[in-house]
Structure prediction request, 700 residues.
Amino acid sequence: MIELWQFHGGIKLEGHKSLSNKNPIVQANIPQFLVLPLLQHIGDPTKPIVEVGEKVLKGQMIAHCHEHDCSKRISTPVHASSSGTIVAIEPRAVPHPSGLRAPCIVIETDGQDTWFERVPLTDYMELPPSVARTYIAQAGIVGLGGAGFPSHLKLKPEGIDTLIINGAECEPYITCDDRLMREEPDKIIAGASIIRHVLGGAKRCIIAIEDNKAEAYSALLETAQQQQEQVEIIQVPTIYPMGGEKQLIHVLTGQEVERGKLPASIGIVVHNVKTARAVYRAVQQGQALISRIVTVTGNGIKNPQNLEVRLGTPMHVVIEQCGRKSGIKRLIMGGSMMGFALPNDDMPIVKTTNSLIVSRNDEIETPSLPMPCIRCGACANACPIHLLPQQLYWYAKAKDFKKVRDYHIFDCIECGCCAYECPSHIPLVSYYRYAKAEIIASERDRKKADLARQRHEFRTFRLKREKAEKATRHKQKKAVSDNSKETAIKAALEKSKAKYDT
Amino acid sequence: MIEIIAIGALGGLACLFGLLLGYASVRFKIEGDPVVDQIDVILPQQQCGKCGYPGCITYAEAIAKKEEEINLCPPGGEVAMLALADLLDREPKPLNVNGMEETLSLLAIIDESTCIGCTLCIQACPVDAILGAPKQMHTVIDRECTGCELCVAPCPVNCIKMVEIPQAVDTWKWPYPIVPLTPEDQESKTEESMEPLL
Prediction:
């Protein structure tokens, strides 16, 4: 039995997981239209490499990174998730809290679902790690836990000795990791060993599961024993936010990741269980990331369950498939604690959509009236990062962004523990999101201003230089003409003198 | 005697420190005025000239010399004015004294079919953000346009328009949270949110 550590704060939440974790994962229907945003990950958007009217096959790359090189910038390609014809490349509504439009590739499916050529890399063990990493980069894999960071960038063999596969799944309502671990433990373990190889052979490989998922734990344990893989399957206590990268590392290893640094700085890399399966599919089966498991749950759904959904499938298609109840009032993407509400269901499922919570009236608690902060400190006790949420709130409310920064707002993971514990019902996370957005925007403005200043300075310099050049040219010309005048006069004088003499 | 020694010692010290100070002022001389740079950083660098000065740096110099008010920069808006007041320890002043209002962030767009290629806008642009040549169509490099509107007036065929920069997913900001203050507020807000969504 391995000794576990504890992270500061955290809360115990009602799981609501039994709603959706009873039924096996089913395939979602192929929709008529697939809408694939060019940006489905953290980082730079991709560029389309197909044109309207072109026929594409399932798994074919349709948008690539900048200069077709995924290692230069934070980016990863997008693939067609079913066969069909490209009918549009235009801005469409994307699942984002703003509800704004962003460039998307729209495919009209032909229902054939024909695969593009798949080239598996079964003998990856004999090849250097970079080969498999390129495969993973080309497959468009991102962190499927919900953050969406391109995975190949987290797979560099830079002194990594511990690989953690995250199956904690601490958010209420979400059960997709749970179902996947029960149904495909072999693929997760196979994916983990591929990741291990790509990392240059990490010494330890841990799969961490919260102790409320006993079946998933035993399934993984059994498979690991059968395959005799050197994988540690570890149960961790069910405390929200256990699934947070830095929290999980702390609980498993007792180590803390320094502020502003990545876990790789202490030799640890964390990947989600779904990412491990996607890596398995990419390397062993040659399949790009074209689908993901989504939990569709909430009391607005007749049959809450997990589905394997093709990326780009409109949400209403999936909700329809699970049985839509009438009087739906709210649609949340990404969990009840850290997710955000969407204005409607005419948006595509993207790489970061881990769940849809569809709620009717009776599930939504009327938010209590926010009262003044009494500085009780309950938020600070709950904060898993050791921040001072009451101070952050205070300064964010006063728009004192310098102070907000001094209190390390950018370490906040927006887990919502503070707001959950607040006896005054203050929507604390909204204030933090606001403050972060303002700081990021002002930095962007500052960069733009610096560019403008540089250009203006150069222009002033250029004008001055041109003026000086003009002046010297003028002078030279004048000097030349003066010279020639003088000689002409001299010549004329001499001529007349000669004439006069004779 | 002791007086002479005292005077001599103090005089000697005075000379020594005088020399030291003189050396330090030469050795550690700062080129330019640091206050001007600090003011310039606060100004938004649109180079629009709406303050009456050609470029932000000249306005910054005028402020530093206390020749000019701190509320003449419409693109900077209240934020810049307050930052300047804070930096220079001056009294904050309302912005729209001369009928000026805070300007939104804009982008110049040239209607390329109407452009006659006169290069007047290129000469007017303070940040060289317009590309073109005589009798050739011009265009704005949108990444570099500051939205100063200086190119609009010189255009003889009125083909330059200022457009508001549309909101995009990557520039969108979470709004300031609006919380209900009274139970009545709360009820109306809840009722609103209870409208069927789908």
About this structure: Residues 428-501 of chain A form the longest helix (74 residues).
